[in-house]
Write a structure and sequence with these properties.
Blueprint (H helix, E strand, L loop, with lengths): L5 H5 L3 H7 L5 H21 L3 H21 L8 H19 L20 H7 L5 H21 L2 H11 L4 H8 L3 H32 L1
Helix pairs in contact: 2-3, 3-4, 3-5, 4-5, 4-7, 4-10, 5-6, 7-10, 8-10, 9-10
């Protein structure tokens, strides 16, 4: 297994990070940090209230992971375009299934204020096929099962709130636990999730080689 410094990973483009995720699980953490603002912005545009926004942000993170494990260099569009479509698809799918709150027409559209111009990327993408959507759904179901299996209840709560853009202090206040407990839970979750990232990317690479 190759070793990469955090600094070297931070300097790499998205496509390079995706190719390294199996050997360097921290690569996906860097991708998640890069796409966090896009995920949070999209989640807010889909949601009817803050609680829903948290749920959509969780789905967006899983959509990003599904994109990273299924991305094929040279076959798909650029990774950012591909990832935004997968994130959008996941949130759209959940929105269709869980219409428990009445929302105005068009409220599920991507925000025009998205700092990373997601709309432009989505319109530029032509690879959103039914087969891809099915694969993404299967991948996300698998991810849910794996995450639930390795994370404790508190680790899940803390990690998902972190993905949703909350600070350590905000998470501590929301869950009524010390900030130190938040930090410890996130560190434990990251260690466990790195093993999940590695397993998912290794499986995806093996599947791609057999096709």
């Amino acid at each position: 297994m190759s070793t990469f410094s955090v600094d070297s990973l931070f300097s790499m483009p998205d496509e390079a990070l995706v190719s390294l995720c199996a050997d360097a699980p921290q690569a996906f953490e860097i991708l998640l940090e890069r796409y966090r603002s896009t995920i949070v912005s999209m989640a807010r545009s889909f949601a009817g209230n803050p609680a829903d926004a948290e749920d959509y942000a969780q789905e967006g993170m899983l959509g990003l992971l599904a994109a990273a494990t299924s991305f094929v260099q040279g076959k798909n569009a650029g990774f950012r375009t591909y990832a935004v479509v997968c994130i959008r698809n996941r949130m759209s799918s959940v929105s269709r299934m869980e219409r428990t709150v009445s929302r105005p027409a068009g409220s599920a559209d991507i925000s025009l204020d998205d700092p990373e111009n997601s709309i432009r990327d989505i319109l530029a993408d032509n690879g959103d096929t039914p087969e891809q959507a099915f694969f993404e759904k299967e991948r996300v179901s698998e991810l849910y099962a794996m995450l639930a299996d390795v994370l404790s209840k508190q680790e899940q709560e803390v990690f998902w709130l972190s993905v949703s853009g909350y600070s350590y202090e905000e998470i501590a206040q929301k869950l009524d636990i010390p900030s130190k407990s938040v930090d410890n839970a996130i560190q434990r979750a990251r260690r466990k999730l790195r093993a999940v990232w590695s397993k998912m990317f290794t499986a995806a690479a093996s599947s791609a080689e057999q096709e």
